[in-house]
Amino acid sequence: MNTSAQLDRAHVWHPFTQMRDWLRSEPVVIASGKGAVLRDVNGREYLDANASIWTNLHGHRHPKINAAITRQLRKIAHSSALGLANEPASLLAHKLITVANQGWSSAFRPPEKRRKSERQLAKVFFSDDGSTALEVALKLAYEFTRRTRGAKSKPRFLSLAGAYHGDTIGAVSLGHVDLYHKAYGGMLFPTDKVMAPYCYRCPFNRAKPERGDARDYRKCGWECVGQVARRFSVQKKKSNPYAAFVVEPVIQGAAGMIAQPVGWLRQVTDLVRSHGALLIADEVMTGFGRTGVAAATSGKRSEDVLFATHHENVQPDFLCVAKGLTGGYLPMAATLTTQAVFDAFLGKYEEFKTFFHGHSFTGNQLGAAASLASLELLQTEKSLRQRGQLQSNLQAALASLWNLPQVGDIRQAGLVAGIELVKDWRTREPFALRDRAGIRVCEAMARHGVLTRPVGNVIVLIPPYCTTKTQVHKMVEALTQGIGEVFGNKKAPV
User: Fold this and answer.
1) Which of 39, 137, 259, 403 is the one with CA 20 to 30 A from 278?
2) What CATH code is carried by the domain that includes residue 277?
3) DSSP 35
4) How far apart are CA 229 and CA 309, in angstroms?
5) Which structural domain, as residue segments, surrounds residue 11?
6) Cβ partners under 8 Å of residue 30, min gap 6
7) pTM: predicted TM-score of the whole model, two decimal places
8) Residue 244 and residue 109 share a domain
9) Domain count of the fold of the chain
């Protein structure tokens, strides 16, 4: 066994991993990467089919991001943001606000027709990762609500069933995945949940199973939106309206890659606004182009949509980003918010209106330099073209999976796909957790040179943007072969 593997087994505790199972076999030890390819210490190559846990945008060792970090290293790696400013962080804040507001302004409806209740984003608070970006939004929303409704109010938050927003205490309190959060129930503050628009398993969907995305053949009356409306109405009668609704827009990640039907986000946003609540968009996974480009219409070229909310012309009060912010290179996060929220924290020193929250590496120069380079890449014609091609290639390749009886639903949102495994697609009967269906299929895929990680019984494909058509087909072929090997399909179509 490789020395690094031995040291890992001896000392490293891995996240979201049953270590008893981990210690039974030799781990894959990654040594290097280039583009969409990873290489282990034994020289074997793998395709990175989940972009190194949904973080890597442009591929590994991208020369422009490498160069940006190297240039910054010649100046300084880090200095404190407490009482000091720095050039890269200032430039990045300006760039984030610019692209967030431009994306909203150009999203499918002329600016003059935008709803008056929607706000421009104006301020950026930097932190370290997705959890901390949500913590910032929670604290700001909580205190803003108290200051605008009265200090005696006790603001509550609403999020979706199956929600996952991180692992810090505030973020966990917003989550509703018992498998992850139940053990910490005694440490959390109470939040409410409402059903997610999970068309494939929605109790209100009257459609029988078909070989297609359940969102496309669903038969319902938007009861999922009605449930949100009822939640807000009930809370309002308690004389304690919700402070904010927190959502991963377009697609929920750790919930099982639950893609929302078109129109859901717009309708829910209108409800949130009508009740005077704030909207917190968790775009830690969905941001920076992950949810795809908008199709060209009326002879116009495809629209570049960097944030998921802009697919439905929604601008949140808080936009939380991380993961792909630096292109997947360094841990960095940002919470964007409005001038109104910022103004609520202005006052005399002795009034203690200051936002008492911070991180040692807030506004880190290396992270900011990488982020600026990533954003520059995203705005090139080449990147837009790559993302459009990847979106089409992924859709075409995934179609072959409908031939497999264990594939119940395929949910694609741009450059993200979740393939839900079931015992039989005709009944939608799920595999039990003890069957480890998703894990076993991913283990088989690794033997075929493709690395990804499941969410329960859902196989995730979320490749870097540089992934070629051939590489996409290899990913889907490995998934097909893996399903065949695990479930004994006599003939696994490729």
Assistant:
1) 259
2) 3.40.640.10
3) B
4) 20
5) 3-62+382-487
6) 38, 39, 40, 41
7) 0.94
8) yes
9) 2
Q: Which residues contact 292 (CB under 8 A, 6 or more apart)?
A: 305, 387, 391, 413, 414, 415
Domain finish residue from 339, 356, 379: 379
7 alpha carbon, distance to own chain's centre: 32
The 10s digit of each residue's pLDDT in 106-160 is 554 444 444 544 579 999 999 999 999 999 999 999 999 999 987 677 889 999 9
Domain co-membership, 155 together with 137: yes
Amino acid at 98: T
Q: Let me know whether 245 and 112 are in one domain.
A: yes
- What tens digit of pLDDT does each residue of 61-99 get? 999 999 999 999 999 999 999 999 999 999 999 999 999
> Distance between CA atoms of 50 and 120, rounded to whole angstroms?
33
Unique residue bearing structure tokens 């200090």: 151
The answer to whether 225 and 267 are in contact (CB under 8 A) is yes
Helices (H) and strands (E) in the chain, counts: 16, 17
End residue of a domain, out of 341, 363, 379: 379
Contact 155, 139 (CB under 8 A): no
- Is residue 492 assigned to a domain? no
Cβ density class 360-369: b for 16+ within 10 Å, e for less: ebbbbbbbbb
Best CA proximity match to 116, nearest among 321, 310, 274, 285: 274
Residues of the chain with pLDDT under 70: 105-118, 151, 295-303, 490-494
